[in-house]
């Protein structure tokens, strides 16, 4: 029988100690790296606020939990843009609109929550286009249609929400393929079969 690597055991116990909270209290986690390589880990607390911990140095200790506010559903998505700043996307509990919050500068402080509209269900999926622009995918709250919204070529400017069609169970996943195009995967709400669509031109939304 293959023996477990002792280093793996050390890694697991150090990780749990760093996060502090008991597992049942953590809920869903999301993680992203600062431009300097230090990680930030995020969760939604029981009141719907976004909370985070930050590595103090690469492979080092962690800060305590701090709040970035909001009243959001679990099912957040974390990404970085072409400038290296982190952003977190979530669905507001009261309005079901997409909101995001982002670092104002590389490795820096955070903005307030910004309303991006829509009427959607959590969770959301986020991808980065070939040119660095962020694109967000979600299921419409009214009719389960696939929806998306994307950054346009201006700071903090976004497109209108656009339908991609179909009817889906909430929970898309997206990834950029070898050609630089975003692929989107989801489960059909009626047949429960896996569905797939993709950009035909990199960066073309």
* Class by SSE composition: mainly beta
Q: Would you report the number of β strands?
A: 15
Arrangement of strands in the largest sheet: 1-2-3-4
Strand content: 35-45%
The helicity comes to under 10%
Give helix and strand order, one letter per element, not per position: HHEEEEEEEEEEEEEEE
Low-confidence stretches: 1-9
Shape: globular
For the CA atoms, what is the radius of gyration? 18 Å
Tell me the number of helical segments per DSSP (H or I, 4 or more residues long): 2
Mean pLDDT over the residues? 87
Task: Measure the end-to-end span.
Answer: 51 Å
Largest sheet: 4 strands, antiparallel
Describe this protein with a few key phrases.
205 residues; mainly beta; four-stranded antiparallel sheet; 15 strands; 9% helix; disordered N terminus
Could you explain how this protein is built, in words?
By secondary structure, the protein is mainly β. The protein is 9% helix and 39% strand. It contains 2 helices and 15 strands. It has helices at residues 6-19, 23-26; strands at 29-33, 39-44, 50-54, 66-69, 77-80, 86-91, 98-102, 114-117, 120-128, 134-140, 146-150, 162-165, 173-176, 182-187, 194-198. The strands form 4 sheets. A 4-stranded antiparallel beta sheet has the order 1-2-3-4, with no helix packed on it. Strands 5-6-7-8 form a 4-stranded antiparallel beta sheet, with no helix packed on it. A hairpin with a 5-residue loop joins strand 2 and strand 3 (50-54).
